[in-house]
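This part of the workshop introduces the protein records we will be handling. As an example, a complete record with its sequence and its structure tokens follows.
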Amino acid sequence: MRILKLELKRILKTKLCWILLLLALLLSVLLAYLPTTFCYSSYKDKNGTEISLSGLASIAYEKKLQADASGIVTKERIKKAVEAYHACLNAYGVKESYDLPEGAYEQEILPIAPLLHGVKEAFANPATGMAPSLIEIQPGQIADFDDICKKRLTSLMASEQPASTAAQQQAVRMYGRVKKPFAVYPGISSTVMDYQNMLGFLILLFCVMAAAPAYSADYQSGADQILRCTKYGRRTLGTAKAAAALIISGISFAACSTVYIFTANSLFGWESTKTSIQMVYSILTLTGITIGQLQWLFAFAGLLSVCASVSLALFLSSRCKNIVLPLGAAFVSCIAPTAACMALPDGLSSWICTLLPASGTSIQASILYALTDFRFLTAGGFAVWLPYAMMGACIIEIPLFLALAVRSYCKHTASR
């Protein structure tokens, strides 16, 4: 324990460590604020003057406009929203909302827009996947909305996983366990989650690059030749170095994620975190959680990913005699999941993203996007939802890479 305290003290005394920590915290606040800058609204006042709003003012305006849409999304409320949509378009003699005259959409459609989310997706053609326009969906069809969603999921999984009956059946079972009806509280959007993912990736890079020289720096400087001769210079010191890197990385990621979540929710409104994930992403999403729960679940999954990636970086560091190789290899390990997702077929990229620890917070291949997708790992009659596999792999990889790092460090010092 004393060696661990000394190692933590040594790391925290370095100026670079504090610079990275402060930069990470500043990024947490900045990235939480940036999604508000994409919000724009406009309307005409009583005098006919056009008023343009942006940022927090736009968010507040739209939340007030959509206040009546907040709450539990029952089939009756969806039906009334579809009827209102039809009435509006028929009154102006148009077939699509973008053909409405200026101001009509903001006054008549925008207030009910949250209730219309996912309706077109549920009624998509099973063969082609093409969604109809809302004007083609009759209000009377909404009475069977739950059954229509289940049938749509069945057809979707048949096209997504045509070779795996097990994946198709598991997806249907998972969706059957999702609590319905859903809830919607306007305010937050998927952009907030995208920026949380971006923050996770940047913190991942900081932590991995900081941990990469943990052992190799001593090899390169020759300090290891002295340290390994001391009483606690082998296994104890090797374990302390790994534990210190893991503790600092874990606390940093947890602190930054917490700052981001509290900042973003304070800006967009805490009540909007009670929105069901299906009302922001696909109506067929397989997990029954709210946006607020998704934020914390992703933060936990990201923490596992960071710890597993740092553990891999420590193992690489224990195997290299200079700091350049582990730094380069650690960087490649961080971007490899994105490259695999972009360049390889879905089946192969799913397996690679599961095995690479950085996948949890990587761009395009993170657990966030896996949670809102329908990808399964399949092998014969075996099928497991990708988020479960990714988090399970990280839990296994953390102790595995840590043990290999300490073992490699001890063998290296003994062989010098």
Notes: The mean pLDDT is 88. Residues 219 and 295 are 41 Å apart (CA to CA). The radius of gyration is 26 Å. The longest helix spans residues 235-268.
